[in-house]
Amino acid sequence: MNSNYWLSRRMSRRVSRRGVLRSSAIGGLGLAGAALLGCSGDDEEPSGGATPDTIATTDPAGSGEPQRGGTLRTHSLGDVETFYMLTAPQLSGGRQMGYAISRLLMPSVGEGGPADGSLVGDLSESHEVVDPQTYVFHLRKGVTWDDRAPTSGREFNAEDVVRSFDQASETARARGSISNAVNPDAPIESMTALDDHTVEMKLAFPDVLVLYQIANLSPMGIYPVEAIDGAFNPEQEMRGTGPFRLVEYRQGVSMRFERNEKWHLGPERPYLDAIELSIIPEAAQLETQFRAGNIHMGSGEISNQPQLVQEVPGTLLYTAPPEGNGATLNFNWMPDSSFLDERVRRAASMALDRDTFIEVIFRPAEYVEAGLELPQTWNNPLPSSYGPWWLDPKGPDFGESAQYMHHNLEEARRLLDAAGFNDGNPLRYELIFPGNRHDSRRTRQAETWQAMSSQAGIEVVLNSTDYNTGWLEIYSPSRGYWPRGPEQSEPMDGVLYRPSSSKTDAGQWFTDYFNPQGSNTITGEEFPDLWDQVVALKGMTDEEERRAAVHDIQRYAVEHMVTCPVDATTDFTDVHWEGLHGPGVVQPWPGALGGYGYATEVLPHYWLDERLRT
Amino acid sequence: MSGATTVREPAVRLDGLPRTRSAWGSFVRFATRKPLGFAGLCILVAMGLAAAFAPIVAPYGYDEFDFARALEGPSRDFFLGTDHLGRDVFSRAIWGTRVSLGVSLAAVFLAQAAAASVAIVSGFYGGWVDKIVQRLVDIWIALPTLVILITLIAIVGPGVKSMILIVAATIAPNYARLIRSVVLQVREEPYVEAAQAIGVSNTRVMLRYILPNVAHVIIYSATVALGAVILIVASLGFLGYGLPPPQPDLGAMLSGDGLEFMRRQSMLAIVPGVAITLIVFSFNIFGDALRDALDPRLRGR
Amino acid sequence: MLQYALHRLALAVPTLFGLTVVIFIAIRVLMPVDVVDVLLGETDTTFDPTIAAELREKFGLDGPLPVQYARWLGRVAQGDLGRSFVSGRPVTEELLYRVPTSLQLGLGALVITVLVALPIGMMSAVRRDTVPDYLARGGAILLYAVPGFWLAILVLVFGSVWFRWAPSIEFRPFWEDPLANLKHIWLPMLILGLNSTGTMIRLVRTQVLEVLGHDYVRTARAKGLSTQTVYFRHVLRNALLPIVTVVGLQIPNVVSGTVIFEQIFLVPGVGRYLLTALQRLDIYVILGTNLFFGTVLVFSNLVVDILYGVIDPRIRFSGR
Fold first, then answer.
1. Distance, first Cα to last Cα, chain A
2. Which of B151, B265, B274, B276 to mutate to test the interface with C (most CBs of C within 10 A)?
3. Which residue is closest to B278 within chain C, CA to CA?
4. Which value does ipTM take for this structure?
5. What residues of A are in contact with residue C32 (Cβ under 8 Å)?
């Protein structure tokens, strides 16, 4: 496994001496691997050199222990519409939920290196598998709800869990993914309280993936009974047992969170006294505010990062594993589609030069100029952020089928020719993507895609649709639209699709997107044996066995090109100001900072030194 | 109705000059009397020609890329530099102007055609038709045009067709009111009454006698409207409701990708903005000069 | 006067009614997808038709369209604009929170417009066909032609690149912290104000020219009154009437401008509320905000009409 991505990732990180030094600053976290913090400008100066007098009290190399205190200033793109995910129809602002709302289990974070995807207890202290269909959770004792009435500091108990589950299976938008009563494919039959601090979960069928489902904050956030009974309005008041408490919310302006002194994973964490979150919907405004030092860190949306860290002293670039939701080109499975021919699908994929794609989309050369080497990975249908679960198409273990992801114009043309397409009768298809300014990267991807395909003699017609109106019309399979339904108004062939949420587990990812009956299917009913492989995952208790099966699924998916992976990617990169410790070192699973539970999993480990304490 | 009598055509023509003067003569007169307006006209003609013949004039296609030369500054190859996909900024500005001008022309033409027909018919007949039409126009004018425009386009979804139709529908009433006020004056002119007296059909009166005499208002207001519509279309593009990519849209070029990279390649920020400003500016100075030249009552003021 | 105002008011009701009908039809008929589908979005991984049905019922979007509309209208008559589809919060409340901010921005911009345009416009008319006049006229057209959003972006982008300057990040309502409020809102106010100054200068100039051509001005001058007295007592007063109308004409521009500038400059006003709602097609918020903007315009027109009556010189003369 020499070319294993994770190994190479760590090795590439050791290149930076300063990266090693800086990561030792995270004393409370240890050093599982040397994470890289980028450099601002030259390599020899200690990074604190820009503001020497303000750091006199701390070691610039950062050997100091994490300190408590300070207010972290960050941003959000929009308002949080509702704090109550047990009834929310849409969770666009759900990212902030994790500040205050806890779960039974959560994915662990990587400390100094990438996370490995294992689950740890949140409100559940431990759990046991009684039999494949019975799980028992032992809840933490002494956890208290918000001090304000009506919860008034009451102790958290099993009833809160049971009622939250019942409410979720009744009204939560994603109830179909957990509650067997709603959806026969969903595993959980019931949750019952055995005593005040023990909950028993009964499954309708054995499913080892259920724990990952529970670790997803949507729909399994745990709310107090008072919220469910309407004693206060949980849609507008965020009250839970999480690491922070929402103390002020100015609509459209800012949110202020303060440390929950009684957090059950405390008491030393969270280190931060408070988090001030400014709501900034404009990209230009966001970059301007960061440059001026009005916010300490971005959430991945700040543009011109390599230039920025070179132009603005005191800012750093850092990396984390890439996003857990890679774009794929989804094929049309209608009877007259050219893509029913496997050769055509393979040719479409081989026309894409994934390394150049990375250069165009992410411009890694500019990061090198700023002193940061970015690892470059290719997503197969499973995004590369799924760590050991992901199989590197460039690695030796992938096998024969990896060739269909390598750029090979000759072979692509040969395949097309065999399928009856040539210069006189080129393969021509429409690529549909939601292109508007709210997501300009997708436009860039589509334009690049079109350009590359043309070199293989494939004519790609770009069809950009408005997200709300056109896109959902095409891509609402659940409502009987593409790719299954005959209801679409115009014929179409390919859809550039990017799942809008990451999953807690690779198996869960496949379950969502390869399910022929599922609403988000990208394979249609074309590959029944693929789906059989995915279903078999639910019964595999042995992790090694399951991982091997997950790898096999990826080989199969690429072999038959069930969907064409588009995203070749680099690490997630972002910037922060010197004086903030944690970004790049504390790494969430599976990747980007977009997960609902981010605030619980990651932010408690961040801390500020004197430079940003004022 | 013997048909022996011919009604004299109105003595005053579009340009307010005796009809004996040749078109060329009035043009030269306009150019010498109104140098600023003439300059505006020249800019417009130049930009219009460049836009119309974009495939010939623009050195590159709007989607012609070279990944290796992305985000370059102005150079011999790329007059105004390149964008993030290595596309020529100058060529994209020309194509963008073509799209913006095209959409605006179509929208204004539609709006003016609708406004003029409604205004002439309702102004000519008067009575309850006129009352109802005027009431509707009053209602529409009282509303926040751009807000409704954004709302409707966001709902219906952006696209060339929907953009033209919605823009035309939202601006038309303003012009209907203006044209009607002139129709009311023209209707009282002796030559119109004379034509009616000898039994010329109403349709013919409207087409032959009223339309030519309100044409100057239509032309002038269309000129000014074009400037306004280009601004509106650009604002929509900026807000994310412009024409869908890969269509180059001057307003959209200032948001999204353009906005992301303009700190590095300042031409991305400057070129589309200057293009919009130049077009709108030219339409307005030309429009002003045209109004002075066309409307005898305002001339010399 | 009162009768006139009442008459205009009576016209306002069908105007606003028509507006909501148009938008309602656009959302429920012209839009290619159902709002409930939009709300559930593509991340609804396990489709469950009962959720959509429940949502329809909860938000009053079930049953025939006229019934849906009538239901909404009935609630509006009681001052309830419905609830946001996404957050479940009452639209009326959310609007009330944002209205003062938008009004402050809009009125402030209007004041800037008048303060800049009035002297320049007058000067331009009085010094007709001189260099200052040409400059003023050219400048006015230029101000009109420069897209306001472009100006805003230039300030934001190059302000930070060249001077590492950023506008204030945190908005505060005026009544809470006037200083912080002004520190935040002056920039959008100024750009929005300048944006409509061009048109205003031109209109003021035209009106003053008109007045200058009147007999009484010539008479006043002939009587040997000082130039200043003539301009301020006779010209300005008589030009004021049309200028009030002109200010009224600027209100739609300013209202539209708030939508763009609130978004760019982090002002939590009604315009930004509308833009967010449009991204999600949050039907009742869209209806509510449009109704608000419509109301503002209809009533400002009304106020202008009444002012028109108040300062109409003919009414004064008949009183003497």
1. 48
2. B151
3. C145
4. 0.85
5. 469-470, 473
CA B205 – CA A260 distance, rounded (Å): 82
Q: Where in chain C is the domain with CATH 1.10.3720.10?
A: 98-318
**A470-510 pLDDT, tens per residue?**
666 565 544 444 544 434 444 456 666 666 566 778 888 88
Over 60: is that where the pLDDT of A39 sits? no
Task: List pLDDT tens digits, range C189-229.
Answer: 999 999 889 888 988 888 888 887 776 777 777 777 777 77
- The token duo for C43 is 């991340």
Structural domain ending residue among the three candidates A194, A228, A262: A228
Q: What is the pTM of this model?
A: 0.84
Q: Which of A445, A503, A449, A512 is nearest to A477 (CA)?
A: A512
Measured in angstroms, the CA of A433 and the nearest CA of chain B are apart by 10
Nearest to A559, CA basis, from A397, A346, A341 = A346
Q: How confident is the model at residue A203 (pLDDT cuts 50, 70, 90)?
A: very high
The answer to whether residue A575 is domain-embedded is no
- Total tally of structural domains belonging to chain B: 1
Judged by a CB distance cut-off of 8 A, whether residue B161 touches chain A is no
- What is C98-318's CATH number, 2.30.33.40, 3.40.50.360, 1.10.3720.10, 3.40.50.300? 1.10.3720.10
Beta bridge partners of A434: A465
Could you say which residues from 174 to 233 on chain C have a Cβ atom under 8 Å away from some Cβ of chain A? none
The residue type at A284: A
Contact A466 B157 (CB under 8 A): yes
Task: Determine whether A46 is exposed, middle or buried from the number of CB atoms within 10 Å of its CB (0-12, 13-18, 19+).
Answer: middle
For C80-139, the DSSP string reads: ---B-TTT--BHHHHHHHHHHHHHHHHHHHHHHHHHHHHHHHHHHHHTTTSHHHHHHHHH
In total, how many domains does chain A have?
2
What distance in Å separates residue A479's CA from the closest CA in chain C?
A: 8
**Partner-chain contact C293 B262, CB within 8 Å:** no
- B142–C294: do the CB atoms touch at under 8 Å? yes
